Amino acid sequence: MKIKILIIAGVLIMASGCKKLFEPDPENLKTIDQMYTDAAYAQGFLVNAYRSIPSYYDNSDYATDDAVTNQLSNSYLQVATGSWTSSNNPFNLWQSAFGAIQYLNLFLENVDKVKWAEDQAAAQLFNLRMRGEAYGLRALYMYFLLRNHAGFTEDGRLLGVPIITSYQTINSDFNLPRASFDECVKQIYRDLDSAEAYLPVEYNNISNPSQIPARFQHITQNVETYNRVMGVYARQLFNGLIAKSFRARTALLAASPAFQASENTNTWADAANYAAAVIDYKGGVSGLASTGVTYYANASEIDNLSEGNNPPEIIWRANIATNNVDMEREHFPPSLFGSGSMNPTQNLVDAFPMANGYPISDPGSGYDPSNPYANRDPRLSHYIIYNGSVAGVSNSVILTGSSSGTDDGINRRNTSTRTGYYMKKRLRMDVNANPSSTTGKTHYTPRIRYTEMFLIYAEAANEAWGPTGTGGHAYSAYDVIKAIRRRAGVGVNNGDPYLEECKTDKDKMRQLIRNERRLELCFESFRFWDLRRWNAPLNEAARGMDVNGAVYTPFVVENRSYQDFMRYGPIPYSEVLKFTNLLQNKGWN
Question: I need a surface site. Which of 49, 102, 121, 505 has the fewest CB within 10 A?
Answer without folding.
Answer: 505
